[in-house]
Amino acid sequence: MTSGSRQVGGGTLFTEPFLVVSHRAGAAESGVRDQYGQPLGTVAEAENGTFRKALRMITGSARFRPNCFAVRDSGGSVVLKVRVHDSRFLVTRADGTPIGEIAPDGPHRFALSAHGRPVGALENRPPRDFRITGSAGSEVARAAEEPGRGYVVEVFAQLTDPLASLVIAAALTVETALRPR
Question: Which domains does the chain have, with CATH numbers?
Answer without folding.
Answer: 18-178 (2.40.160.200)
